[in-house]
Amino acid sequence: MNVLAIDTAGTACFAAIYDSETDRLSGSAGADIGRGHAEQLMGFIDGALAASGRQLGDIDRIAVTIGPGSFTGIRVGVAAARGFALALRVPVVGVSTLAALAGSAGKMYPRLPVLVAMDAKRDELYCQIFEPDGTPRTGPQVLEIIEAKKLLQNFEGVICGSATRHLTQTPLPGVAQIDAVDTAVVARLGAMADPQGNRPSPLYLRGPDVKSQSGFAVARV
């Protein structure tokens, strides 16, 4: 099965083609662009296809990161994934960034549970705990740092993500220095997911940082 994996949930913008039979990427393209995902994503998809020697018609499934992360970036990736799936008539599945980070840590520590902690700004963290097999032990949540530290009580496992510096004072069996999503892991999890009823939607654990100023709205005529 050829899987097109898309990640636009953070400052990076990546596309990759994954061959589930060989468990390897056949091509990828992308960069840490900060902004401009909508303008550059299609070019990166074309680059990944060219590097893999595949065409869009060869794609059997699409996997896309659904967040948490960049409000705008997530919308760009999910909309593109849905559009390609509709045009190609193939399944599309969503993969959370928390699950993708846990998958990367799981390759380093395959027998230990994983606590993923992402920096959510505003002195808050996106957190979730996964079992060694990748099954969620807790749901995804946004927590203040003091509340997130409580997750470490009686936790014997690995911590990873961009917010590990806030939580590493408590001794743990391992700390995986994994801050960025690996598109290969997104593709692998997407290949394993059940597409039935798994229509990807953005995973927003809180509202956008930027809100419209209603006082300056122009009345419709």
Summarize this, please?
With 221 residues, this protein is of the alpha/beta class. It has helices at residues 37-52, 71-88, 97-108, 145-148, 183-192, and strands spanning 2-7, 12-19, 24-32, 61-65, 92-95, 114-119, 124-130, 141-144, 158-160, 174-176.
Q: Output the radius of gyration.
A: 18 Å
Low-confidence stretches: 210-221
CATH classification, class level of the largest domain: Alpha Beta
Beta-strand content estimate: 15-25%
Key descriptive features of the protein:
single chain, about 220 residues, Nucleotidyltransferase, domain 5, 2 domains, five-stranded mixed beta sheet, 5 helices, 10 strands, about 25% strand
What can you see in these coordinates?
- It contains five helices and ten strands, in the order E-E-E-H-E-H-E-H-E-E-E-H-E-E-H.
- It has 221 residues and is of the alpha/beta class.
- Strands 3-2-1-4-5 form a five-stranded mixed beta sheet, sandwiched between helices.
- Strand 4 (61-65), helix 2 (71-88) and strand 5 (92-95) form a beta-alpha-beta unit.
Q: Which SSEs are present, and which pair or pack?
A:
Blueprint: E1 2-7, E2 12-19, E3 24-32, H1 37-52, E4 61-65, H2 71-88, E5 92-95, H3 97-108, E6 114-119, E7 124-130, E8 141-144, H4 145-148, E9 158-160, E10 174-176, H5 183-192
Parallel strand pairs: 1-4, 4-5, 6-9, 9-10
Antiparallel strand pairs: 1-2, 2-3, 6-7, 7-8
Helix pairs in contact: 3-5
